[in-house]
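# step 3/5: fold
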Amino acid sequence: MVSKQTFIKGILIGILGIVLFSSKAVMVKLSYKYNVDALSVLLLRMLFAFPFYIAIAFAYRHEKSMHVKKNDYLWLVFFGFVGYYLASYFDFVGLTFIKASLERIILFIYPTIVLLFNKLFLKRVITKMQKLAIIITYVGIVITFGSEVSISGNHVYNGGFFVLLSAITYASYLVGSGWLIPKFGVMRFTAYAMLVSCVCVFIHYGLVSRVNIFNFPWQVYVLGLCIAVFATVIPSFLVSISIKLIDSSNFAVIAGVGPISTIVLAVIFLNESLTLLQIIGTIVVILGILLISKNRRK
């Protein structure tokens, strides 16, 4: 039984991790103001994060784990490619088209996609309450997204499509990698998967990009470092600690802070704003996800 003090500590650590994760979209949008493309910003993020995850992988090399087979490493590479490389790339591309606040709202639907994948591939039953929660969530998305299209134009569809792809690839990673995490251990699996992602980004940049990485304004490098440290490495630790203290079901509930914190940060640093209809849509989305989380706990 977790003590009240430990539970409160876990909640506070989790909220801090979520807020830091949420700041990623805002810092990426700030980088785009210097005419930097999505792949270059993603490269800077991975370049700065790479040494940290090398150190983490080394530090946790003896973390207690189950027997790991050769095929498990192949699956780890696959899920690192899908869950951290593809999901991140789609997200960064999507942010070139849409606001940071709208991006976070769309990404926040990934628990509904997890439920759908569990139904399709693992034959798990979706309860009536979960079906209602999924409907509520997507009604909220339609309200928020439709309102933005009427304001900003059809290019919002492009951004929404890429961010939706990000949510789908991340959800597939969550569904498929669950059986691997106990084998490697949480920290070691995360570090290995992130290192795979880093290598994928390095290869992608080397094959596709013709941009000189050394010609950006100094502000871009500072933002790249901040994205890597404060919106990637540190929150990944905080979230892991929070889940350990309060369990994943309770963490799923406080994750509702994510869209709200992104909206607040976007208003402060990007001068973004939401219409009343978009605010209503955001609240509907959050209620839908909280309903799913509550149903899971039961």
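# step 4/5: annotate
The chain has one domain: 4-297.
# step 5/5: archive (pending)
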